[in-house]
Amino acid sequence: MHITRLIERFLREQDLPPTKFGRLAAGDPRLVLDIRMGWEIRPEMEVKLRRFMSNYGQHAQFQGRKGL
């Protein structure tokens, strides 16, 4: 699946605001907005985003235990 469609689906499924996703995944709260406006994702960033999404459940569980 193309990364932009994967991100949009991930946001819906996780009920995650785009700015929070960008901040957590790449340190850039405008990331999703830039992607929606046509910004092309470099291969290194795509790997980073895919890795973040595949590991998100583990991160969310850890944060819940820490009370963050």
Structure description:
By secondary structure, the chain is an all-alpha fold. The chain has one domain (3-66). The protein is 75% helix and 0% strand. It is built from four helices and no strands. It has helices at residues 3-14, 18-26, 31-36, 43-66. The termini are far apart. The model has no long low-confidence stretch (mean pLDDT 89).
What is this structure, in a nutshell?
With 68 residues, the protein is mostly helical.
Question: Any chance you could write out the topology, listing elements then pairs?
Answer:
Layout: H1 3-14, H2 18-26, H3 31-36, H4 43-66
In total, how many beta strands?
A: 0
Q: For the residues shown, what is the average pLDDT?
A: 89
- How many helices? The count is 4
Radius of gyration: 12 Å
Structural class per helix/strand content? mainly alpha
Overall number of domains: 1
Distance between the termini: 32 Å
Give helix % range: over 70%
H/E element sequence? HHHH
Proportion of residues in extended strands: under 5%
Ranges where pLDDT stays below 50 over 5 or more residues in a row are none
Shape: globular
Largest sheet: number of strands, sense, barrel closure: none
